[in-house]
Records
---
Amino acid sequence: MNTIGDYLKSGSIDIALLLSLTLKQSNTQLYTQSNYRLSTRETDRLTKLTQQREQGIPFAYLSGEKGFYHLNFKVTSDTLIPRPETELLIDIVLELFDQKYPYKILDMGTGSGIIAITLADINPRWKVSATDFSQAALDVAKTNTTAQVSFFQGNWFEAINDQTFDLIVSNPPYIKENDSYLDGLIHEPQTALVSGEDGLNDIRVIIDNTPEYLNKGGYLLLEHGFDQQAKIVNLLNKKFHNIKTFKDYNGNDRAVLAQIK
């Protein structure tokens, strides 16, 4: 049996994180107890996790959770892993809306629920709804709920019938088919990532249909790929105005906010 210190010196991928997961200890505890020898059961557990990580399975799927904004979210292979870039959408909404009023907000393609649940948790006055075509993803989102969110199953607007909202927000699939970027995302649900030859198929559906589901003066907020902003602005120009573009924390084009004409 090896000690914690032996494993920490091994250089294995994410070994400190995997040890923390195996032993349910913080990183600090690992280093202060470096002489602790793992039991046979703990060694077997660590070996399995190490093999899975070396196969490319993301750590978030091994731990079953990922932090986003101020909350931790359960994630499974049915949901995308939350990315820091998507936190930009939360900041935009908080800047856009006065938190005193009960605005109606819809998160389309919610996945694990990160956008809808974060907004509802920050401001319970807002009436937040969320949709996804995947019932498995919605089941995960419901377990993540910390505040009142109404969930609906269906493909984009099929899920919400004749409801209208002050804001529709979405982090939709926007990666091109056969994009080499997908090679590093093979463990995540491809239907939540890929959207046609140019990556804009789902965004077109959202832009074309959103006006029917917005209240007067309502907004559409979209996350998108780093090279898609100009095309999306062009798509929005027909039915939207007051279009604003945003860069993420790495300086890449990442989001567009537009108001219905």
---
Amino acid sequence: MRIYKTRSIAADACKNGRVTVNGVQLKPSRTFKIGDRFSVRKGPITYSYRVLQLSENRLSAKLVPEYMQDITAPDQLELLELARLAGKTGRDRGTGRPTKKDRRDIETFMSDNYLDDFDWEDEGI
């Protein structure tokens, strides 16, 4: 149902205990029934789904909501959002390691006396 990109990745996840059905770890050959609840652990987040219908063939992405319902807990979705925000901080990807000047600028910015040099009276504060 398009949770994993390939069947071999899904089978490895089952073997490593990352997929559970109704709270029980499962083997890759396990068949589902309508109404089963299964959880998939990807990194720090555990996604939960409920089976609505069964299909014999691979589905297009548009049809997936008709066959399974996402019932992931809000606290898990919050973890996902925090991870997404944490990834946006720092340097841009592909810019390489910080130079000496970059490192000095970062250390100056992170120091406690960074705002001591700021002229507050000129800003009207």
---
Amino acid sequence: MTEEVAVPVRELPLATATTAAACCGIGVEGGLTREQAEASATLLKAVADPVRLRLLSAIRATDAGEACVCDLTPLVGLSQPTVSHHLKVLVEAGLLEREKRGPWAWFRLVPARLDDVAAIFR
């Protein structure tokens, strides 16, 4: 028979509000509120698509800071309805403004909203 060896057990103190804060030096207060987190998640979802990132980047790269959907469609190699859908998501998130000019829709960046994306990580 094998002999059982007693392993000493050291009891750890229970974590309390005082010990938890002292542990890492951060408290549980701060950070985003639930509403801020939901708004930020909505904004991040809008830019979390490679096609939408390419569209934003292409519009940003134009001299006027705006582009017609007719120019954006061949750029990403997708159908006009698909590109329009992606642009609609960006407009709904407030990242782009849409202006109808004749038969075409033109899209312009909203710089303050792009700053909101960056501010999420500051």
---
Amino acid sequence: MLRYIDSNKMGRSQLGWLDSYFHFSFAEYCDPNNVQFGVLRVLNDDRVQPGTGFEIHPHRDMEIVSYVVEGELSHADSMKNEETLTRGQVQYMSAGTGVYHSELNHGEKLLRFLQIWILPDKKGHEPNYGSQRFALEDRRNRWFFIASGSDKAPIRVHADINMYAALLDKKLNFKVGPNRQAYMVMIEGSGDVNGTRLSTRDAAEIVEEDVTVTPSEPVHLIAIEMAKA
């Protein structure tokens, strides 16, 4: 089963310094019928103006992955981690028992990144932070394995998920087996997923169904595969 998610009907936050698309209920956007998809609790497509960003604030008991689409994302946290990531690079933070952090745009250009929150397998993990400076070419016409609940991916999270990204200019299959589901986002470009048209920022919920992505132009996607809810 495939369900199309139209970005034009997503929750929005337009604050001047921040323009966000909310795939699920978040902040002022509250829809009781759209709270999460399996263990995927938040997926925000954030556009942050230069010289602004998310100042220091707390989190706990959440696995947080940030995927930089364009611009510069500068991270700092109470574990004394500080760094700046750019296009295609990924950071991971397990908030666990509690952590403070900030995510800022110190650059001169617009920052766009996907903010992804995943429910952990249990509460009370020790807070942790890491990042990966993946090369964009690693994603060229294949599903590049980014994060997983197993030790098979570069980033290990405390949840039963598998996260992939791809840059495609030709057809590519994606498998979703029995008792599994996936959330796929068209980050850039447009194309068909099993005959359903997805444009920039659109998404698809896929349940127990293998799909084929057919680009109509070069596309950039992310897919989060998990246990069926």
